[in-house]
Write a structure and sequence with these properties.
single chain, 29% strand, alpha/beta, 33% helix, Alpha-Beta Plaits, seven-stranded mixed β-sheet, four-stranded antiparallel β-sheet
Length: 285
């Protein structure tokens, strides 16, 4: 028996009495059945956050109900976005030469782990063209040099628009996206950084970590912004290291972390569990 269509709403705004009751009452009044509800209050900022998932009384009217809910949330002074479980967001993955994160994402996508549709692989190198083809994924080679970066980003944006992409995942894409690209795409971009940010931002973080003799290394998935490696953090994980581990050991261990952390961040985003505000995120269970 197929799972019922559900609506997932993420909303946030100034805290005020009765928000939980009013949201639940709105759904109840329309015959909906709430499956999950979670909320959080930022005590310092006075901001209320909520994730609520429900089954609408009629699947055929779910789209209309989603529009009505957005208007209702606005009447409460809340910003909101809503996800329809019957509609999978379209995802593009940007890669360079490193393949570990790409293999992991592609295999998870084929296994049905993601609530999204992987529709394009874009790369500044041809190295992963055959790999993408083996997964049945369209591969697009768009070379990038310092002189051609602006033109290359225009080609990338045109392709993303043509494919109606709603989420971009940087799977160790070794290029910095410009502020212009991020503004014109206007959708979320998830990046994996191979360190436990904010430590060792920038290039060669494992070499930096080894030089400092750290006892923990990490990986960080975050939303990309115009400020390099400073976007809202979605997920992080760490592994213990000792004086016996060389740089190659740190890189090998780090690759495992990068795969897991990026996959979890993508999964949470596609399931409507991440809510970014200012330079933070709320990630609902």
């Amino acid at each position: 028996m197929p799972a019922p269509v559900t609506l997932v709403a993420l909303l946030h705004g100034p805290d005020q009495p009765g928000l939980v009751a009013r949201v639940a009452g709105w759904i109840f009044a329309r015959g909906g059945n709430i499956l999950h509800a979670d909320q959080h209050r930022d005590m310092e900022e006075g901001i209320f956050f909520q994730r609520i998932e429900w089954v609408p009384v009629r699947e055929s009217s779910a789209g209309h109900e989603a529009e009505e809910f957005l208007a209702f949330a606005a009447s409460l002074g809340m910003q909101a976005r809503i996800r329809h479980s019957g509609r999978k967001p379209r995802v593009a993955v940007l890669v360079s030469k490193a393949d570990h994160c790409f293999h992991d994402l592609a295999l998870r996508w084929r296994a049905g782990e993601f609530s999204g549709e992987l529709v394009a692989v874009i790369s500044n190198h041809r190295d992963l063209a055959a790999t993408a083809k083996s997964y049945g994924l369209p591969f697009h080679h768009i070379p990038v040099t310092q002189k051609t970066k602006a033109a290359a980003e225009k080609r990338q944006l045109a392709l993303l628009r043509k494919q109606r992409v709603e989420l971009v995942v940087l799977a160790r894409y070794m290029q910095i996206l410009s502020g212009t690209f991020l503004q014109e795409f206007s959708g979320p971009v998830i990046n994996i950084h191979h360190s436990f940010l904010p430590a060792f931002a920038g290039g060669r973080p494992y070499h930096q970590a080894h030089a400092r003799g750290v006892k923990l290394i990490g990986a960080t998935a975050h939303y990309a912004t115009k400020d390099l490696d400073e976007g809202p953090i979605i997920h992080q994980d760490v592994a213990r290291v000792t004086h016996r581990h060389g740089v190659d050991d740190l890189i090998r261990m780090g690759r495992d972390l990068e795969k897991r952390v990026l996959a979890q961040a993508v999964r949470w985003h596609l399931e409507g569990r991440t809510l970014a505000y200012r330079n933070k995120t709320v990630v609902f269970d």
